[in-house]
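We modelled the chain as a single entity of 115 amino acids. Its sequence is:
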Amino acid sequence: MLDFERFTQEIIEFTTKETLKAIDWGVLDLGHIENFELKKVLIVIERQLTLELEENYRYNTTGIFRVFRACGLWCYAEYNYVIRAESLCDLKRIVEGQNRIWYVFDEVLLKEIWR
């Protein structure tokens, strides 16, 4: 069984925009991780982020990872936790202020929502 609690700090440092970008571009390399248990934990998280990113590519209409619009509000959904804001700028500020991933994966979609 994987011990996620043991690697809390490493997980926090791994779940960033830079990691998601590396996954998106297909260049994430975990070869430098020497601790085998930590590497297994990060591989599980990488797989989950990859699946979530693939789902965003299929269904997300904003071009921003985990962001959608509902009932006139901008929303950021990370599993069952949802952050809501009246403007996209406010949402970005809140998300980044909570050290969550703010990642634009599709510039074309993002430009379309600003029209």
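As a brief sanity check on the tokenised model: The helical segments are 8-14, 17-25, 36-59, 88-97, 107-113. The CA atoms of residues 17 and 101 lie 5 Å apart.
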